[in-house]
Amino acid sequence: MIGAATGAAPWMNSLVPVPMVGGGLYLATGRYEPRAGVFPVTPQHAVKSDDRGRTTGDPFGPARVALAQLLEVVERTPRDEKVDDREAAATTGARRPVALALDESANRLYVGLEGTGEISLIDLKAEQVVETWKVGRGIVAVAVGERYLVAADGPGEELLTIDATASGAGRVLARAPVADPVGLAVDGDAYVVSRWARRVTGFGLDGSGCLRVKWTTDLPFPPKHVVATGAGTLIVSEAYGGRLAVLDQESGGISRIEELPEHSLCAIGLGPNGRAELLVAGRTVDRLATTERDDLHWGLLVRHRVRSIAIPGEEPPAASRPAHVAFPLGDVGRGAADPSAVASRSPDRVAVALAGSDELALFGLREANARRVKVGAGPRAVVIESGRDFAWTANTFDDSVSVADLGGKGPARTISLGATPRPNAVARGDRLFHSARLSHDGWMSCASCHVDGHTTNGVADTLGDGDYGAAKRIPSLLGVRGTAPFGWTGRFGSLKEQVESSITSTMRGRLGLEGVSDLVAYLETLDAPPAPAAARGVSSRPPSADRGRKLFVTLGCVQCHDGPRFTSPRTVDVGLADARGRKRFNPPSLAGLGQRQHFLHDGRARTLRAVFTEGGHPPKPARGPTPRELEDLLAYLSTL
Q1: Is the CATH number 3.30.450.20 carried by domain 1-50+97-247?
Q2: Which of 67, 460, 525, 587 has minimal CB crowding within 10 Å?
Q3: Over the stretch 137-173, which tens digit does the pLDDT of each residue have?
Q4: pTM (2 decimals)?
């Protein structure tokens, strides 16, 4: 029943969204968990996947066994003793609602549960759970079609089509492999973005739930959301930076890429007054601000806003409003943190889920201020009922959904999805990591700078190096386990010390010893991401990468980037002084290097090549790489 396009990778992603009643769509996120072997596929109605494990055996031959063994130690990425934070949360029994889909004609709201792999059905009028279906391992996206429900299983890496009729409710019709489903859209056909694979895939969709791959397009950045404009184009947002890619819906070709000041974008297409507009919610970290209390109080360090823009390449909105309008989220003394989803039914009805603040911001595009309504903990998704003018949120951390009246002034009503289990240390740490309550006036959470545990690719001037005046690149926390010491200058001997300093001197908040331990427990579950080629299912390295492996040793890279974490506990004079004159830095881990975009302590190198050609790294090598050797070395580093 499920086919693949000619030339498509055999493990091809197939995240298939279906339009909701009223033309809406929902964008949800998941996390990719590379595992040895193959993608899990149910034999019935599935596309078979090829082996995605790493190549085995000695790539050099008998004459170089000793070197091969050394290289194997350097290359190995430890992923054995810990599990992904999403799976760790699932072991607690927490449901973790993260996705919503409305079917107003059937009086239903579908809630995707990431922690248990279930879909809960809520009666819209009764505002209560009427049924729950077990369909996978962790549902991260769900959408309603005319004849069936479509869901993406993040940890299970599967796409599901589900019979939602009364006679077959909850029966899985088909399954197909999906790599890291993080965003979906439907406009006749279906479109999915895969984060670490940096890919968009278009699917033909028929009335019975069968799928066929139409095209795949690789992106220059990891995506998070995709929006169908209704005019033959797709808008794809960057997960950690501020870029938007415009794709042709029929061919998948990229027509242009634009960049906004914000990062960690979530976007949804709008059509107010018949004009095509895009709402983009995101945040910025100001490199000129410090982490002094005053800068946090006035909202100078981290800002969150919604931007209304003309859809790139289409006619701008009415001349009565400029093409770009920014709406700030948060007020002095009452910050707003981490917009995670946006929904709108009209220019006067816009709802923004504030995941870090546990709130829903409600406003109109003609208004100056937003009304903020308290909802459950960690709202990740929002949808709006057109008939009753209600907004619903999926609250990840307390297993609930909330409903707010867009036109009223009363509080939101919160509906439990069932008994909430007692969270373990990892689940508590996950909640703390994403909570703005740890910061002064609630302007930021840990996730504001370390989105999904990763990085915004920006820089911030904190006291992590002991003083102000030399802003440092915000590092990724994915794969942070076992990489002590911490901080660019190696000031912190343990992750506990680093966490305590970040809370007190960066966020200007407080946290007890148990909370610090919980945060550390959570951080130690975060694994380094796969390289783009590995995420796309390429199981073998090119010969140039194998040559680069050898050069990594012979050129002395292992002197600083050694062992399974590609780092060392020392501080090293790399010949690159910061703005305060410091020259000694702790070598950053290279695990997950293939998914980074800015490099060196101040982010001066915008490409990996620039580290060697413009960044002056390494300093005064005994023998630098020749141009051909540099190509081989870059080929190897891009596989990490």
Answers
A1: no
A2: 67
A3: 999 888 887 778 888 888 888 888 888 887 778 888 8
A4: 0.82
